[in-house]
Design a protein that fits this description.
The chain is an alpha+beta fold. The protein has 19 helices and 17 strands. The structure holds S-adenosyl-L-homocysteine.
């Protein structure tokens, strides 16, 4: 591993360095050096073979290996099908994602290629050096042996043009990827609409996220593969500092303990735990972000303490039988959206030693009434007259979608009521779907236009310094904001009266990561989806 991080230690890269002595040595020496260093790093990045687990030191080596070991010449495939840059990229991703055998490439029938779909523009491996290669150059260079390449030094400007061309390709691939992601998103929305309107009795019933297969959960984990979502979470100081303060100010809880971090992301909680005195931390994440966590942990010299494992906690085997503490930041919108708590409970039941603890340990879900006539008009009455047209039928689609947004505390018109308390050390899976009666004490005489939901988190068990945070509208906002369930029409409310209601929270059986929340208020039922 260490060798990969040291490009200067790689002798073969040096052999492949072009001879620069023909150029103007004095001119732009620094820039040249930088350029070559860049080249060197590029070249020294190992390449995973397309058909086996071998790591090869360069793209040409990989092609040679494929020809020698797997009897398939990628250059012949490129030539035979006249693959351009996109075709080539799609072919590489197709081979990696379908794990097709080398022989299937040789015997492709006439007609459309199996990697025609734009989906294959999406890299299967992060920073795959094969995707950075130029198919035209691969074909041109196919005659040259390794020795031949080292003797054909190319001038700086040729390489620069190549780098620019590669940049251009990367940019257009990114644009194509963005378009594909957009299409995917639209398809998802369409599928969700179908799911909502479908007859559930005929379809396969997935009960929990634990029963999801890896491929079924791919979209979920790939959403965590991008750095943006982790940046947002890390920058949410209320969230991250609460975890930090809990661990740093209760170091006696962590001293010499074995800790499991379920869904470690960038590894932040694992590093807090290590600094708080844990003997060993095992950090698990199925998302590609774990590769960054590996670098992050090494950069902070914590690799002796923190063991990172890529995989779904439900699919992997931990290197220890039991752990003393489980930490996780699993909370979704309205607490239970995403259903990641299912995975934490799975880990708890399998790995937590007797007397061990899950943190955070206590969570409350609360509701309050909202009176915001302006917003209600913007969202609901708006559809009555859109540029002179009646679109009121849209209300049926708009109202049942819960909205994640920050609620102005001035629009709250009742005291909050806790509808559910979850003790992560005791709760069982079936209790994560529940029905609760609630009563909201009105504080203003006005019209009720929505119900707002949010949650509070407590680090409590065995802690001498207890820590908590809230995601409610009255305090500093977090990235969870609040969840708003808008009413189809405003209902008058009197200060002092108690609004009695019933709420049911259940998973969408067809997509156990999304939730249905049903309110029974004023004798009327309305179901909201949260996706
Ligand atoms: N602990 C990090 C990241 C929290 S986000 C932090 O606090 O910043 C939740 C992470 O859990 C995501 O990276 C997601 O990929 C991971 N995750 C969710 N369910 C998982 C499961 N069943 N197995 C492994 N990782 C999971």
């Amino acid at each position: 591993m260490a060798a990969n991080t040291d490009p200067h230690g790689n002798g073969t890269a040096e052999e492949q360095m072009p001879d620069l002595s023909d150029g103007d040595e004095d001119e732009d020496e620094d820039a040249d050096e930088e350029q070559w260093q860049w080249e060197e790093e590029e070249e020294s990045q190992p390449v995973t073979c397309l058909f086996c687990d071998r790591l090869l030191s360069s793209v040409p080596d990989t092609l040679q290996h494929c020809t020698a070991e797997h009897r398939v010449s990628l250059v012949d495939v490129i030539r035979k099908h006249g693959l351009d840059d996109y075709g080539y990229i799609k072919m590489i991703n197709f081979i990696r994602s379908t794990k097709c055998s080398p022989s299937c490439l040789g015997g492709l029938p006439e007609g459309p290629l199996p990697w025609e779909s734009e989906d294959f523009l999406r890299p299967v491996l992060q920073d795959d050096p094969l995707l950075q290669a130029d198919p035209e150059e691969l074909c041109e260079g196919s005659c040259s042996s390794r020795a031949c390449q080292s003797s054909t030094a190319e001038p700086y400007d040729v390489l620069q043009r190549r780098a620019q061309a590669a940049d251009e390709r990367a940019r257009s691939s990114e644009e194509a990827l963005a378009r594909a992601m957009d299409d995917l998103h639209k398809l998802k929305l369409l599928a969700q609409g179908l799911v909502l309107n479908a007859d559930t009795s005929k379809s396969r019933n997935l009960g929990t996220v634990g029963e999801l297969r890896e491929d079924e959960d791919e979209a979920y984990f790939s959403s965590y593969g991008h750095y943006g979502i982790h940046e947002e979470m890390l920058k949410d100081k209320v969230r991250t500092e609460s975890y930090r303060d809990f661990m740093y100010s209760n170091s006696e809880v962590f001293k010499d303990k074995v800790v499991l971090d379920v869904g470690c992301g960038t590894g932040i909680l694992s590093m807090f735990a290590a600094r708080a005195g844990a003997k060993r931390v095992i950090a698990v994440d199925q998302s590609e972000i774990i590769y960054q966590a590996m670098d992050i942990v090494r950069s902070n010299q914590l690799e002796e303490k923190i063991t990172l494992i890529k995989g779904r906690i439900e699919d992997i085997k931990l290197p220890v039988e039991k752990v003393d503490i489980i930490i996780s930041e699993w909370m979704g919108y309205f607490l239970l959206f995403e259903s990641m708590l299912d995975s934490v409970l799975y880990a708890r039941d399998l790995y937590l030693a007797d007397g061990g603890s899950v943190y955070p340990d206590l969570c409350n879900i609360s509701l309050a009434a909202v009176g915001d006539t302006q917003k209600h008009q913007d969202r609901v009455a708006f559809w009555d007259d859109v540029y002179g047209f009646n679109m009121a039928c849209m209300k049926k689609a708009v109202v049942p979608e819960a909205v994640v947004e920050v609620v102005n505390p001035d629009t709250l018109i009742s005291e909050p009521a806790v509808i559910q308390t979850i003790d992560c050390n005791r709760v069982c899976l079936s209790e994560l779907e529940f029905t609760a009666d609630f009563s909201l004490k009105m504080t203003k005489t006005t019209e009720c236009t929505a119900i707002v939901g949010y949650f509070d988190i407590f680090f409590d068990k065995d802690c001498s310094n207890k820590v908590m945070f809230s995601t409610g509208p009255q305090v500093t906002k977090t990235h969870w904001k609040q969840t708003v369930f808008i009413l189809d029409r405003p209902v008058p409310a009197q200060a002092g009266e108690e609004l009695q209601g019933k709420v049911t929270v259940r998973k969408n059986k067809k997509d156990p990561r999304s939730l249905f929340v049903t309110f029974d208020l004023w004798g009327r039922k309305q179901t909201y989806s949260l996706q």
